[in-house]
């Protein structure tokens, strides 16, 4: 039995093929079928502004609900989608779906979408974004694209040109997971990011670890002087929240407020004031 692997080459299934490789082929097949079967969905995590203590946007996070495997984590299946090239099709679907669902929200609420560096470099992200905006009617200002530093690692000029074109459409650009991987401060000078998202690994022990604290301090200061918003990812405790507010971080996202929620719950989350955590924070600030 021969099967195309999507790159125009052929691989033959044979009895010697080891179990790992077989399992892998099955997974790839499952991932393609998941499209047809409607097993992918998006969940949304609130992003809270520390200026006005309001939800200013939601990050769309991909989920795969497999009938037998159960809920499969994107940390597991996105790398597979990237290796097989399926990420291009899947990523297009994510952009389109997120824009459609965000149309149901109030006008001031943005949607942030993760775009894989593979999709960014091999797909046509400008076309994907334009067609998603056109199909949904979402104003471009309400869409934020999250990319990682990997996008700027190779073919930097070419990729910055793509980012500029997205900007020209009116779409916002955020740098995700900042501080991990290949961080180069030079990138911040080459392109006007609208937002830097400080990686969760620095937030986790920001209040206890001197180095994490120093990194978060440096990034927030950089944000202020560049006029770039800074979002702290993975805020789980009030201690972290207070620390970040004092540092001048502009937005927070994390389980302290909410995990990612189904699309149908977005309006009810928007209807109530941001969690008690924020109220406590505000009281504390007013007392001083
Ligand atoms: P990310 O873009 O950095 O997303 C943040 C991840 O942190 C999400 O994991 C979110 O659920 C998790 N998180 C948020 N708050 C907290 C917290 O307080 N504590 C902890 N421990 N975790 C928190 P998730 O949804 O499993 O996604 C993991 C990664 O998968 C994402 O990291 C992103 O790189 C990728 N991903 C998710 N959806 C998509 C997508 O639609 N397209 C692409 N290309 N990548 C995606
Ligand atoms: Mg992200
Ligand atoms: Mg991140
Ligand atoms: Mg991440």
Automatic annotation (TrEMBL):
<protein>
    <submittedName>
        <fullName>Diguanylate cyclase (GGDEF)-like protein</fullName>
    </submittedName>
</protein>
<feature type="domain" description="EAL">
    <location>
        <begin position="24"/>
        <end position="274"/>
    </location>
</feature>
